[in-house]
Amino acid sequence: MAIESQEIKVVENRLRRWAKRLGFRIEKSRARALHLNNRGLYQLIDDRNTVVEGVDYDATLDQIEFALQKEENRLRGA
After folding, report:
1. Fewer CB atoms < 10 Å away: N or C end of the chain?
2. Region 1-15 average pLDDT
3. Alpha helices by DSSP H, the chain
């Protein structure tokens, strides 16, 4: 289990660096009790503090990665 947690942290850190290069930030839910507006996962936020992915802290790391790839492709004109 510890190895899995460490692998998740490695992916999370890689995505955080990528997001920062593109002008975004990733926030992880800190809620102890989950509720409708907080599903306990992640949000991707742009430089204007607008949530791009995971409005209710419901984005997985895969969804964050897909959103970052889409944004990078948009910036490159692809």
Report:
1. N
2. 84
3. 2-21, 61-76
d(CA 57, CA 64): 11
- Specify whether the CB–CB gap between 44 and 61 falls below 8 A: no
Number of residues in the chain = 78
Higher pLDDT pick, 46 / 1: 46
Of 55, 53, 57, 78, nearest in space to 67 by CA: 53
Q: Are strands 25-28 and 42-45 parallel, antiparallel or unpaired?
A: antiparallel
Amino acid residing at 46: D
